[in-house]
């Protein structure tokens, strides 16, 4: 399955992320099919290639939870935000 997700780039303590289209089973640091934008968490700068993202979603590409929330915030897709919570110690033990 093809998925749109974040790929970490940059130096230690100065990371930023590329929004990439990649096979779900490949390593997050592996080769991407296409770069669709970037996110810089330090400067809060975000840039997305809206046309290509909509194209790949129409072809059946999935979205990671974080990328989905970014696209909802930027009003590229119309969907509710996905709540992300850390698992409790009890949930981890099960």
UniProtKB/TrEMBL annotation:
<keyword id="KW-0687">Ribonucleoprotein</keyword>
<dbReference type="GO" id="GO:0005737">
    <property type="term" value="C:cytoplasm"/>
</dbReference>
<dbReference type="GO" id="GO:0015935">
    <property type="term" value="C:small ribosomal subunit"/>
</dbReference>
<keyword id="KW-0689">Ribosomal protein</keyword>
<dbReference type="InterPro" id="IPR000307">
    <property type="entry name" value="Ribosomal_bS16"/>
</dbReference>
<comment type="similarity">
    <text>Belongs to the bacterial ribosomal protein bS16 family.</text>
</comment>
<dbReference type="GO" id="GO:0003735">
    <property type="term" value="F:structural constituent of ribosome"/>
</dbReference>
<dbReference type="Pfam" id="PF00886">
    <property type="entry name" value="Ribosomal_S16"/>
</dbReference>
<dbReference type="GO" id="GO:0006412">
    <property type="term" value="P:translation"/>
</dbReference>
<dbReference type="InterPro" id="IPR023803">
    <property type="entry name" value="Ribosomal_bS16_dom_sf"/>
</dbReference>
<protein>
    <recommendedName>
        <fullName>Small ribosomal subunit protein bS16</fullName>
    </recommendedName>
</protein>
